[in-house]
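INTERNAL TRANSFER SHEET
From: sequence group
To: structure group
Subject: 2OG-Fe(II) oxygenase

Please process the attached sequence and return the structure record in the designated field. Keep the field labels unchanged so the import script can parse them.
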Amino acid sequence: MTPSVATSSPALQPATQVALVDALVEQGWYVGRGVIDLALCDALNNELLHRAAYNGLDEAGIGRGQQHLLRKDIRGDAIHWLDRESAAQRRYLDAMSELQQALNHALFLGLFEYEAHFAHYPPGAFYQRHLDSFRGRANRVISTVGYLTPDWPSDGGGEMVIYHPDDPSQEVARVVPEAGTFACFLSETIPHEVLPTRCPRTSIAGWFRSNASLGGVLDPAR
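Return from structure group:
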């Protein structure tokens, strides 16, 4: 049974939007600790762990459509796409909708949709360095990661490493996957990877998308 989610406090800290927009403009990425309401993180984390325990996740792959492949040597997480079926999911997705409006207002990005999935990394899993979108070939514009695991140990591994957009070998940030942390970056320009984790690691990965439809045909998500 899905736990109830208190809604008296905002899902994201109010100051997040201003700091996030400024960071995207200045450097192409943003990381904030204590940004997501911890009660919401707890509800989402419990939902994800329940799915993991009862085979309710799918092995993640690379590519999409006919080019989708399972490559454990590249990516080792399991996922479930958010579908608003729980109060916690709805609260998180509503917060992302508000952020989408703020990004469009401040940066004129024309974002029209947000897609997201739970991500569960078992011990030993990782995701090699990559871009979330290839320049000019896809419609993911801004990537987000919300971290859910409480009490992350200092030796837990599983950090997301962010690299410089002009020098993919230069590390510019290392994000500890602790509950409440929220990261955001430009999908086409910011290389990143997930280091091998020593503990079960839970998060929500998401993407704000532009409309790359042609000939009146809606460009599909995922």
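Handover comment: Residues 214-220 have pLDDT under 50 and may be disordered. The chain is about 20% helix and 30% strand.
Transfer complete.
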